[in-house]
Amino acid sequence: MAEALPWCRVTIVGSDGTELVWCTLAGPGAPDLAAVDCVANLALLAKRLGGGLVMSDVLSELWALLEMAGLRVEMEGQPELGKEPLRVQKSQKERQLGDPAR
Predict the structure, then answer these.
(1) CB 59 within 8 A of CB 8
(2) Are 74 and 44 in contact (CB under 8 A)?
(3) N or C, which terminus of the chain has less Cβ within 10 Å?
(4) Does residue 8 belong to any structural domain of this protein?
(5) Tens of pLDDT along 46-73?
(6) In a domain, 100, yes or no
(7) Which domain holds residue 66?
(8) Which H or E run includes 64?
(9) CA 43 to CA 88: how far, in whole Å?
């Protein structure tokens, strides 16, 4: 069985910015569309709770998949293309597949 590689850390935050829960998304090899589905579901959950989703230590491959899938994200507090985002925020620097986990 292949060792799980961390793809990103996700944190669900409340409307006041309080961290409610966090986890590391990981899997064998590069992220796939199942990872995008997971991020989208977490973002919807966060939105239903009145908060948002913050992603950190994100592999560039995962960001590329999120963009390709059309998941609207909020970068530094600004909605992309003026649309209502799911409040997925990018935090810290992207990682490349094969970079050591932090």
Answers:
(1) yes
(2) no
(3) N
(4) yes
(5) 989 999 888 888 999 998 999 888 876 6
(6) no
(7) 4-91
(8) helix 60-68
(9) 6
